[in-house]
Amino acid sequence: MIEKHDFNFANQKVSISYAGFLTSLIALGSPVIAPVIGYLLDRFIRNEDFIIVIGIFLALLFVFLPRSGNDMVMAMAIGLVAGGAPVCVFGLVPKYVSMEETGTGLGVLRFGENMGTLFGPFCLGLTYDLTGDYFHEFLVVAIFALISSICALILKIHILELNPLAVNLN
Fold it and tell me: Which of 55, 53, 39 lies closest to 91 in space, CA to CA?
């Protein structure tokens, strides 16, 4: 039976309801930040640049979350930063895929998203089973955030190699 404080959030014993509340704060960021990011992408900044910055910030937040003293602020910060990622990623499709292949491009993105949903919890659970520490789970998530930044950087470099004039294009 689960006791009142048998649930860990970032290596701290908290009640199940508080852990659920902190997790829900992460979802709060998307409705707040996604429209702002979408506006900025449409007018000023390239998607790849935002993905690079978001990945780096998320990696830092996930590394510091288990050691922070304020879980609520960290969860809200993660939500605000992560809330812009889907807008940036799905906004790449019409830029790099023809109109006739937009459905395929979105399908490929959804496939990748669903693979993360399928294997992500397993990998994190396995990480905890092997280490017995939630810090390493957050470290794995931070590594994947950095990998997303690296992929966006590679995409940006590849596009600039194909079209050097693309530097100023949005």
Answer: 39
Q: 105-145: per-residue pLDDT in tens?
A: 999 999 999 999 999 999 999 998 999 888 888 899 999 99
Residue 25 tokens read as 């704060």
Task: Give me the pLDDT at residue 133, please.
Answer: 81
Half-sphere exposure of 81 (CA within 13 A, CB side): 19
Give 129's contacts (C-beta < 8 A, 6+ positions apart): none
pLDDT tens for 78-113 read 999 999 999 999 988 888 888 899 999 999 999 999
Residue that has been written with the tokens 């199940």 in this structure: 16
Which DSSP string corresponds to 86-106?
HHHHHTTHHHHS-GGGHHHHH
| pTM (2 d.p.) | 0.82
* 62 and 54 Cβ atoms separated by less than 8 Å: no
